């Protein structure tokens, strides 16, 4: 009779352990239920990056006659307002070009053309806008190339290598950003990844992303924007470990003080 009860208890404990293990495992793999994504009709999204205030731009103008394009290209002289610097020819590297800081109103000051509103426009739209304005000065349609120099994202929390990362190709998604940060640690909550985004109007958004669900790749927030911040929330185990570490430190400090006081009392009593 006792043996039967013992067997039942053992079997029950084993089943409970297996159930807990299965539940824990479900929280680990990324992008579960991929069939849902594959069966979902997806529209082609426009992924053009929109320029925002505080972006740094380089703008290269070139044409068949470099001398004609030279007044519109400035060598970087340590300023970002586009009003200083030396002119350069057609083959100037973008790294040497003057950088234009987009002000809070979304404007830049471009040589010869003056103030241009670029906030909220994609790079292609800015290029077409400048080409249109240059028609007055150039006989042929020039080639205009716009780049965002300070395109970066930041990854914080439970990742292996937190930090800020410059994205040279100006295109990155959530998983790529996490890969740059060395992926999540074992303490990171896959179903509670926060995305902090600043909009064109400086309005802050905080979006929760669930990496366990494959449908996350369909989210409009899956493709990141410049200055996005990703925060990976720690799980309860990490929080408990932090509390234990803090409490242990306080306990050792208190013990050390008590021992010191006891030694002082012993010395005083022995006198």
Could you give the topology of this structure?
Layout: H1 2-26, H2 34-39, E1 56-62, H3 66-69, E2 99-101, E3 107-110, E4 114-117, H4 123-134, E5 143-148, E6 152-157, E7 163-166, H5 174-180, E8 188-198, E9 204-209, E10 229-234, H6 236-270
Parallel strand pairs: 6-10
Antiparallel strand pairs: 1-2, 1-5, 3-4, 6-7, 8-9, 8-10
- Extract low-pLDDT stretches: 16-23, 79-95
CATH architecture designation of the domain at 151-238: Roll
Query: Mind describing the biggest β-sheet?
Result: 5 strands, mixed
The strand count comes to 10
The order of strands across the largest sheet is 7-6-10-8-9
- Portion in helices: 25-40%
Q: How do the helices and strands follow one another from N- to C-terminus?
A: HHEHEEEHEEEHEEEH
Annotated CATH homologous superfamily of the domain at 151-238: Outer membrane lipoprotein wza domain like
Mean of the pLDDT scores?
80
Tally the helices: 6
- Class derived from helix and strand content: alpha+beta
CATH class of the domain at 151-238: Alpha Beta
The CATH topology assignment of the domain at 151-238 is Outer membrane lipoprotein wza fold like
CA distance, first residue to last residue:
70 Å
- As a percent range, the share of strand residues is 15-25%
Shape: elongated
Structure commentary:
The strands form 3 sheets. This protein has a 5-stranded mixed β-sheet. A 3-stranded antiparallel β-sheet has the order 2-1-5, covered by helices on one side. It has 6 helices and 10 strands. It is elongated, with a radius of gyration of 29 Å. The protein is an alpha+beta fold. Among the domains are: 50-76 and 95-148, wza like fold; 151-238, Roll (Outer membrane lipoprotein wza fold like). Mean pLDDT is 80; it is low at 16-23 and 79-95. 33% of the residues lie in helices and 21% in strands.
């Amino acid at each position: 009779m006792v043996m039967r009860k013992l067997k039942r208890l053992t079997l029950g404990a084993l089943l409970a352990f297996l159930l807990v293990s299965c539940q824990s495992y479900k929280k680990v793999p990324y992008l579960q239920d991929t069939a849902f994504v594959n069966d979902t009709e997806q529209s082609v999204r426009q992924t053009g990056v929109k320029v925002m205030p505080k972006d740094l731009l380089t703008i290269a103008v070139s044409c068949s006659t470099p001398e004609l394009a030279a007044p519109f290209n400035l060598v970087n002289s340590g300023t970002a307002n586009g009003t200083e610097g030396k002119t350069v020819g057609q083959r100037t590297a973008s790294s040497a070009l003057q950088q234009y800081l987009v002000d809070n109103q979304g404007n830049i000051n471009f040589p010869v053309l003056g103030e241009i509103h670029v906030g909220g426009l994609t790079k292609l739209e800015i290029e077409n806008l400048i080409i249109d304005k240059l028609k007055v000065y150039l006989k042929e349609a020039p080639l205009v190339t716009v780049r965002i120099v300070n395109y970066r994202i930041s990854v914080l929390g439970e990742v292996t290598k937190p930090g800020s990362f410059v994205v040279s190709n100006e295109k990155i998604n959530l998983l790529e950003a996490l890969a740059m940060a060395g992926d999540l640690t074992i303490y990171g909550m896959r179903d509670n990844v926060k995305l902090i985004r600043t909009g064109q109007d400086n309005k802050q958004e905080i979006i929760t992303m669930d990496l366990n669900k494959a449908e996350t790749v369909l989210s409009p927030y899956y493709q990141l924007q410049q200055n996005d911040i990703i925060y990976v929330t720690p799980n309860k185990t990490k929080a408990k470990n932090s509390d234990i570490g803090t409490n242990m430190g306080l306990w050792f400090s208190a013990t050390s003080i008590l021992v010191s006081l006891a030694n002082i009392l012993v010395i005083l009593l022995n006198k």
